[in-house]
């Protein structure tokens, strides 16, 4: 499975609300990293959840290469192909950092290997792989700490390390740096955007427009559920930003 991520006419409505997304469409090639910006309530998180197969569109479709992401018959083919980093890391507090990170590879393991890892811990080779990716997110030496011993921001970096180890074809990150300090945020966004260099497709919602410009060559903007900008980061002018955010809460 290879090829672009293509969204065609995406609509989404909650039962008790108006449409959250309105005919959103775009295509992202392998090797391309895209920032998604827009005010609160614009539909960013909903869009990313659709791309991560965590929700189904009310209308429209999403394909990765020639595979329809919401075709349930394709679930096995898509195992491990999508990495999702969300605002709440969702990691169990009682597991070790090493096992939490290795969760990014377990889709490719046999049930026996998963059981062995849970019972006796990771092998030395697996621990080395985990250590290498933890160094990339600034958590070197924390392999055998429990997740519950880490700060919220550190736990988020563990979740990002898990996605990096997974090396998926598509990375979807929803405000992944909301709980980290500014310097760490820059490092994390650089890492995520850098995954495009190995051929991944990366979409990441970013609250800070300057950081979006700094780390991503392409920016998509949503306002009131509609796509209002899709272009190069250096073509995103102050006029565009005003059109996206004017009169809205950031």
Structure description:
This protein is an alpha/beta fold and 250 residues long. The protein folds into two domains: 1-81 and 168-250, P-loop containing nucleotide triphosphate hydrolases (Rossmann fold); 91-166, no CATH class. Helices cover 32% and strands 24% of the residues. The protein is built from eight helices and ten strands. It has helices at 44-51, 97-102, 111-120, 124-136, 152-166, 182-194, 209-215, 238-245; strands at residues 5-13, 19-28, 33-37, 59-64, 67-68, 82-85, 170-174, 201-205, 218-223, 226-232. The protein has a six-stranded mixed beta sheet with strand order 6-7-8-3-9-10, sandwiched between helices. The longest helix has 15 residues, at 152-166. The chain is globular, with a radius of gyration of 18 Å. The model has no long low-confidence stretch (mean pLDDT 89).
Give the helix/strand layout.
Blueprint: E1 5-13, E2 19-28, E3 33-37, H1 44-51, E4 59-64, E5 67-68, E6 82-85, H2 97-102, H3 111-120, H4 124-136, H5 152-166, E7 170-174, H6 182-194, E8 201-205, H7 209-215, E9 218-223, E10 226-232, H8 238-245
Parallel strand pairs: 3-8, 3-9, 6-7, 7-8
Antiparallel strand pairs: 1-2, 1-4, 4-5, 9-10
């Amino acid at each position: 499975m290879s090829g672009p991520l293509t969204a065609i006419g995406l609509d989404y409505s909650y039962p008790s609300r108006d449409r959250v997304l309105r005919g959103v469409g775009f295509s992202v090639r392998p090797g391309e990293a895209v920032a998604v910006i827009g005010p609160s309530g614009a539909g960013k998180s909903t869009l990313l959840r659709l791309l991560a197969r965590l929700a189904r569109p009310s209308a429209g479709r999403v394909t990765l290469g020639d595979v329809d992401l919401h075709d349930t018959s394709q679930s096995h083919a898509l195992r491990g192909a999508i990495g999702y980093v969300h605002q709440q890391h969702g990691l169990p507090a009682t597991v070790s950092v090493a096992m939490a990170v290795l969760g990014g590879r377990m889709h490719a393991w046999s049930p026996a290997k998963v059981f062995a890892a849970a019972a006796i811990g990771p092998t030395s080779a697996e621990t080395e792989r985990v250590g290498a990716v933890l160094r990339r997110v600034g958590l070197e030496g924390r392999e055998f700490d429990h997740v519950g011993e880490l700060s919220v921001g550190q736990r988020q970096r563990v979740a990002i390390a898990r996605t990096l180890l997974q090396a998926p074809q598509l990375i979807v990150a929803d405000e992944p740096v909301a709980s980290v300090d500014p310097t760490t945020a820059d490092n994390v966004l650089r890492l995520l955007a850098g995954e495009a260099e190995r051929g991944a497709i990366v979409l990441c919602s970013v609250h800070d427009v300057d950081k979006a410009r700094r780390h991503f060559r392409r920016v998509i903007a949503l306002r009131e559920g509609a796509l209002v900008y899709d272009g190069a980061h250096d073509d995103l002018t102050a006029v565009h930003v005003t059109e996206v955010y004017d009169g809205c809460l950031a």
